[in-house]
Amino acid sequence: MDVLADPTYVVPPVPAAASGVAWLRAGVARFSEGADHVRRRALVARVLDGVDPGSLRRPGDPVAVLAEAMGLPRAVAPDVTAVAACYQPHVPVTAAADAAVARLVAACGGVWDEGTANRIGVLVQAGAATRALIAGVEPPVPVTRRVGPDGSEVEVDLRDAWFGAGRHACPGREHALALVEGSRAFHRLHEDFLVLPNAWDFASAAAFVRAGFAAVGTTSLGVAVAHGLPDAAGVAGEETVALARLLVRLPVPVTVDVEAGFGGDPGELAARLWELGVAGVNVEDGRGAGLAEPAAQARVVRAMKRAAPGLFVNARVDTHWLGVDRASTLVRAAAYVEAGADGVFVPGLREEAGIAAAVAAVPVPLNVLPDLPVPTLRDLGVRRVSTGSLPFRAALSAAVRTAAAVRAGTPPPPDLPTYQETNHLPLESPTPKRRESYVQDT
To answer: CA 51, CA 216: separation in Å to the nearest integer?
Structure first.
């Protein structure tokens, strides 16, 4: 670490440029020394000084969380990723990355100046490093580079200085850790025991939050049927994403049932949902009346985790649900865990002995439906109980009974929420404020 504190070792110099990644490199504190570095680092500090780290403890892609906090669209995250891949001076620049810089400048107001460059620099430097930290990579940035007094370039190992040291040390360590903490909030709910209600629209989800549930999931049956579509047919993808976009307004983590992935690229779907602020997904290996090959489903899980490392991927094993090849349940679960699954869901697993065996065999939280009393499931070691489609089906039944009571001239069910209480559900779930975040070596 002596190199980082030695003023005779400087960051690799970069030439001036008028546009693209080269312009960005030439204007940020990260690749500056002397008076330029002092001035540009002050611009970064100005961004961070107005940030409450607590406001960053939200699920989702940290770049999207950061962008929204800076008043930018969450959708800039893919452009930030493209630029980050070419940001270092020793890495060749692609035309796609140059175009991404132009779009980011436009999103920041269209002015190609040092303020804009360092604003984008905060986003870029928060990107890969924070995502790596969320994924458990230690250190998130393995090396940095310096040029010695003799002109030779040296690599500095950062194993003992994750956030750098000396004049280029990261000024946003607290903000970075807050982003990581926010991304792991839903994971931590599984450390004890989680009862997860499954919603089919914003109102049902907000009502669950009002009732004190710590997180909310969606039910694929409810979402599909509410839109006049069949469940498990892969046809409710856009409806599911549209609902997710609404539910991330809620002040609790949200996990989304994506059936088998809706037939598209699982990584793209995971990244899209993570960018929106979704905390987790439930992805099933059922395929109609049969099952996917374990290796093929493991590739789905792996692609999701690679694209969205902070997303809680709950791998659903449909052997008991479909009554097909039940003997492969634990083999499938092991394959999905090996691929990166954060949890395993076995709907239809009802026998105490089978549940206990699954808990013992699966090294991640086991999720089941409430086919046994919740205290029993907790005692068996289950970490998550999902209500599945039960609330949706109960709501349909109650709605029909209520209408039938009106038709029959009998009193409706008692203790219904009032019009005013129901109308206030959206107002009780404002979009949380989010602020800026961090750089790794500035």
So the answer is: 28
Token pair listed for 20: 């693209």
158 and 20 within one domain = yes
Within this chain, do residues 124 and 190 fall inside the same structural domain, yes or no?
A: no
Handedness of CA 33, 123, 23, 106 (dihedral sign): negative
pLDDT value of position 209: 97
The C-alpha atoms of residue 366 and residue 345 are separated, in whole angstroms, by 6
Task: For the chain, give the longest Cα–Cα distance.
Answer: 94
pLDDT, residue 433, reads 41
CA dist 59 and 97 (Å) reads 27
Phi, psi of 412 (to 5 degrees): -70, 170
Alpha helices in 53-161, H assignment, sequence order:
62-69, 77-84, 95-107, 114-134
Domain identity same for 39 and 117 = yes
**What does DSSP say about strands 286-287 and 290-291: parallel, antiparallel, or unpaired?**
antiparallel
**Segments forming the whole domain that contains residue 11:** 2-183
Identify the pLDDT of residue 1.
Answer: 58
* One domain for residues 256 and 214: yes
Bridge partners for 430 per DSSP: none
Name 198's bridge partners: 217
Do 271 and 201 belong together in one domain? yes
C-alpha distance from residue 99 to each of 14, 21, 24, 106, 268 (Å): 20, 9, 12, 11, 21
Which pLDDT score is estimated for 432? 47
Cα-Cα-Cα-Cα torsion 215, 250, 71, 167, nearest 10 degrees, comes to -30
Which pLDDT score, from 0 to 100, does residue 169 have?
A: 93
Is 101:84 a contact under the CB 8 Å cutoff? no
Residue 221 included in any domain: yes
Residues 132, 190 within the same domain: no
Output DSSP code: residue 232.
T
Q: Domain tally for the chain?
A: 2
CA terminus-to-terminus distance, the chain? 16
Question: What CATH number did the domain enclosing 338 receive?
Answer: 3.20.20.60
- Mean pLDDT per block of 10 residues along the chain (442 residues) reads 90 95 97 97 88 86 89 94 95 97 97 96 89 91 93 93 92 88 96 98 98 98 98 97 97 98 97 97 97 98 97 98 98 98 98 98 98 98 98 97 96 92 88 38 54
Strand 280-284 vs strand 312-316: parallel, antiparallel, or unpaired?
Answer: parallel
CA distance 175 to 250: 22
